[in-house]
Amino acid sequence: MEFLVSHPTITVLERHLLLYRRLWRASAFSLFVVPALFLLSMGFGVGSFVPRIGNTDYAMWIVPGLLALLAFQTAVNESTMGIYTDFEWIGAFHVMRHTRVRITDMIVGWLLYVLVVVELATVAFLVVSWAFGVPQPALVVLVAPLVCALLAVSVAAPTTAFAATVRDEGHFHLLNQFGVMPTIMVSGVFFPVGQLPAPVRPLAWISPLWHATEINRAAALDSFTAGPLTLHVAVLLAWAVLGLVWARTAFQRRLAS
Amino acid sequence: MAATTTAPGRHVAGRVLSVLERNVRATRFGPSYWVMVVAGLFEPLFYLFTIGAGIGALINRSVSYAGLSVTYPEYVAPGTLAVSTVSGVFGVSVYSFYNKLRHARVFEVILTSPVGSFEVILGELIWAVARSGLFGALFLGVMAALDLAAPLRLVLAFPAVLLVGTAFGAVGMAITTYVRGWQDFDVVTMVQTGLMLFSGTFFPVTQYPAVVTALVEALPLYHAIELLRGLALGGSGLALCGHVGYLVVMLLAGLSVTRRRMDRHLRA
After folding, report:
1. Residue A49 and residue B1: Cα distance in Å, rounded?
2. Distance of CA B163 to CAs A256, B172, B261, Å?
3. ipTM exceeding 0.85, yes/no
4. CA distance B26 to B20
5. What ranges do the domains of chain B cover?
6. What are the tens digits of pLDDT across the range A154-194?
7. Closest CA to A107 of A54, A173, A163
8. Mean pLDDT, chain A, whole residue set
9. What is the three-class DSSP state of A196?
């Protein structure tokens, strides 16, 4: 236990959590209030116009997607400015370099921190949707936190890598407009991918958000099939691994200079 | 552009123009500027194509609006236009304005010249509305291309886009004079998101219980959306006048508060 607590990865996690404890108010709104507002507006407001999808109520249909969306956006938001400020303004990673903390510790410690924040938001949203009267089957309560964790890593790892290469904040605006928003558009969060024009549809297959949404939705609608499930998990894992490799290279380059 | 700086005129218009000219000259029109312009246009299109087309295909029936029956994309497009006009104008009149007011201290320098505080405010407001007006015009073009409203109606909607931009720009500047630090912008974002989700952008406010409907109808974004929607789809003239009146009052109140606050801040 002593070994675990003093492991450099855990020290990095502890540093981020300590900062979060002081600054959490700034992000509380986007973590807890905005998702609830989206559920009210899209799930119930727009939902009142949408006929049932299959034999599912629209609000019920959209919640698994909103859960994945929340994990996706939280992972991106944390890993953009969070990494950028630590490199560019505070120089935290440059300082860590002079201790026994290795680059792997920096990256894994950071991703563990993102996981903590994502899980807080996921659990809060499950409670909120239950409170709004959207029933959450036991399978969702079990599966969604795991899927959101996997999605968070598969998105936070490449975003962290990208943020480590960026020297100008304006690039995050571009990431948002040309990366994040199109991904949300093609990932079947608000409407089935089948509604997209045929040439755009293949984009969903590479989107981690779509794969996570599909698993969550299968859990909610109790429509699991083994084949697609393996494929979804495989794509998410691929994103995570490639992201980690890229993050390592990006950190090495940035810290060498 | 003239090689020499225009001397601030003896007339108000000349001095407002020199504030505008400063903004034009201070902007770096490099590739990153144009990428930002493309990104600004991309955002409303994103909403139009996801919510409008995607959910529109699910809804598959007409929405009744002011006694007319319209398709869902036709219903959503003007709402999207209003939301993006407001967020476009806030980019300048809230975020840039804050930077100029508190950090770059541009206004303190300008006020040592013959230019007065009200002229600064007008110049900044015109600059903000010019950019969001450009986005608005492009978006109206897309609406016409997708046949979401009659072209003649869209031409009529353009001045309304400018009015929405001006009214929200003035109020945005007024709010910014009260902002104490970057943390306060979280509140601005929160209010903006809340207004977008519930002011009738994506579904009619008549969906709510009567009390909530009345409350939403008192909010500014509702009037911006309904003005643009009424012009695009055809609403009653009297209601349109009401929305215009609301926005004009916003504009005047915003300008007067901003002026008073700026004088107090910059003389202190």
Report:
1. 53
2. 53, 14, 23
3. no
4. 10
5. 11-267
6. 999 999 999 999 988 778 888 988 899 889 988 999 999 98
7. A163
8. 91
9. coil
Helix/strand/coil for B5:
coil
Q: What does DSSP assign to residue A234?
A: H
Beta strands B63-65 and B68-70, pairing class: antiparallel
Q: Residue A106 to residues A21, A110, A158, A216: CA-CA distances in angstroms?
A: 19, 6, 14, 30
Number of Cβ atoms within 10 Å of the Cβ of B242: 15
Distances (CA, A) of B255 to A199, A235, B114, B227: 49, 54, 20, 21
Eight-state DSSP code of residue A178: I
- Residue A239, sorted as left (phi over 0), alpha (psi -120 to 50) or beta, turns out to be alpha
Which residues on chain B place their C-beta less than 8 Å from a C-beta of chain A?
32, 35-36, 39, 42-43, 46, 49-51, 53-55, 57-61, 63, 72, 183, 186, 189-190, 193-194, 197-198, 202-203, 207
Establish if A32 touches chain B: CB-CB under 8 angstroms: no
Strand, coil or helix: B240? helix
CA distance B191 to A37: 11
Q: Is A99 helix (H, G, I), strand (E, B) or coil?
A: coil
Tokens of A190: 């608000």
Distance CA B249, CA A7 (A): 62
Provide the strand spans (E) within chain A: none
Q: Band of the pLDDT at B2, cuts 50, 70, 90?
A: very low
Q: Residue B115's closest CA among B12, B257, B21, B24?
A: B12
User: Among A79, A1, A72, A4, which residue's Cα sits nearest to residue A246?
Assistant: A79
Contact, A156 vs A208, CB < 8 A?
Answer: no
Residues of A within 8 A of B39 (CB-CB) are 173-174, 177-178
